[in-house]
């Protein structure tokens, strides 16, 4: 999860988030090089009075500054499209969980089990124990198996919500009357925090998401105890 004064992204926990971080660094480097070139040209224009007349009217220069931006856009677009298709790809998920947004809590249903569902409310500040995170802890965590593809079906009962877990690279809108889906795969166990990322009313800030990723054996024991 995020830590105080953090300027970058949270540590990646899924292959998709790792790809997103690589793409961010790739694009940021292109932006940095373009900005440096533009600043260099501006500084030259401000510090010299020399004018090269053949350069001002050269067809070659116009060709270069037309083709070069197109190449740069292609270098950004191709990795972006690749990641978009990867995020939409769901191949034979091992588990499906349906989450519904409410004002102002989440409800979860494990559709592969006959009667495994619960509501997840934020724990009030007055009831936190030492070590708990304010505005992020919930009374019922979503327990999922690690290293397995999990499909999340996301919708809403009332207004627009958004189910987001940054370290997994997930952010999917919960829209009333519409069922959106996302896939997640965690490469390591742990607790992963998120929040509603769509302004949904006065208590928008008080509907956190907590995923507990555990080995498959522990998940089976947990699911057996919940049934």
Automatic annotation (TrEMBL):
<dbReference type="InterPro" id="IPR034210">
    <property type="entry name" value="CcO_II_C"/>
</dbReference>
<dbReference type="InterPro" id="IPR002429">
    <property type="entry name" value="CcO_II-like_C"/>
</dbReference>
<dbReference type="Pfam" id="PF02790">
    <property type="entry name" value="COX2_TM"/>
</dbReference>
<keyword id="KW-0460">Magnesium</keyword>
<keyword id="KW-0249">Electron transport</keyword>
<dbReference type="GO" id="GO:0005743">
    <property type="term" value="C:mitochondrial inner membrane"/>
</dbReference>
<dbReference type="InterPro" id="IPR036257">
    <property type="entry name" value="Cyt_c_oxidase_su2_TM_sf"/>
</dbReference>
<keyword id="KW-0999">Mitochondrion inner membrane</keyword>
<dbReference type="GO" id="GO:0042773">
    <property type="term" value="P:ATP synthesis coupled electron transport"/>
</dbReference>
<feature type="transmembrane region" description="Helical">
    <location>
        <begin position="66"/>
        <end position="85"/>
    </location>
</feature>
<keyword id="KW-0813">Transport</keyword>
<comment type="subunit">
    <text>Component of the cytochrome c oxidase (complex IV, CIV), a multisubunit enzyme composed of 14 subunits. The complex is composed of a catalytic core of 3 subunits MT-CO1, MT-CO2 and MT-CO3, encoded in the mitochondrial DNA, and 11 supernumerary subunits COX4I, COX5A, COX5B, COX6A, COX6B, COX6C, COX7A, COX7B, COX7C, COX8 and NDUFA4, which are encoded in the nuclear genome.</text>
</comment>
<keyword id="KW-0472">Membrane</keyword>
<keyword id="KW-1278">Translocase</keyword>
<keyword id="KW-0186">Copper</keyword>
<dbReference type="InterPro" id="IPR008972">
    <property type="entry name" value="Cupredoxin"/>
</dbReference>
<dbReference type="InterPro" id="IPR011759">
    <property type="entry name" value="Cyt_c_oxidase_su2_TM_dom"/>
</dbReference>
<feature type="domain" description="Cytochrome oxidase subunit II copper A binding">
    <location>
        <begin position="92"/>
        <end position="225"/>
    </location>
</feature>
<dbReference type="GO" id="GO:0005507">
    <property type="term" value="F:copper ion binding"/>
</dbReference>
<comment type="function">
    <text>Component of the cytochrome c oxidase, the last enzyme in the mitochondrial electron transport chain which drives oxidative phosphorylation. The respiratory chain contains 3 multisubunit complexes succinate dehydrogenase (complex II, CII), ubiquinol-cytochrome c oxidoreductase (cytochrome b-c1 complex, complex III, CIII) and cytochrome c oxidase (complex IV, CIV), that cooperate to transfer electrons derived from NADH and succinate to molecular oxygen, creating an electrochemical gradient over the inner membrane that drives transmembrane transport and the ATP synthase.</text>
</comment>
<dbReference type="GO" id="GO:0004129">
    <property type="term" value="F:cytochrome-c oxidase activity"/>
</dbReference>
<dbReference type="GO" id="GO:0016491">
    <property type="term" value="F:oxidoreductase activity"/>
</dbReference>
<feature type="transmembrane region" description="Helical">
    <location>
        <begin position="27"/>
        <end position="46"/>
    </location>
</feature>
<comment type="similarity">
    <text>Belongs to the cytochrome c oxidase subunit 2 family.</text>
</comment>
<dbReference type="Pfam" id="PF00116">
    <property type="entry name" value="COX2"/>
</dbReference>
<keyword id="KW-0812">Transmembrane</keyword>
<dbReference type="InterPro" id="IPR014222">
    <property type="entry name" value="Cyt_c_oxidase_su2"/>
</dbReference>
<dbReference type="InterPro" id="IPR001505">
    <property type="entry name" value="Copper_CuA"/>
</dbReference>
<feature type="domain" description="Cytochrome oxidase subunit II transmembrane region profile">
    <location>
        <begin position="1"/>
        <end position="91"/>
    </location>
</feature>
<keyword id="KW-1133">Transmembrane helix</keyword>
<protein>
    <recommendedName>
        <fullName>Cytochrome c oxidase subunit 2</fullName>
    </recommendedName>
</protein>
<keyword id="KW-0479">Metal-binding</keyword>
<dbReference type="InterPro" id="IPR045187">
    <property type="entry name" value="CcO_II"/>
</dbReference>
<keyword id="KW-0679">Respiratory chain</keyword>
<keyword id="KW-0496">Mitochondrion</keyword>
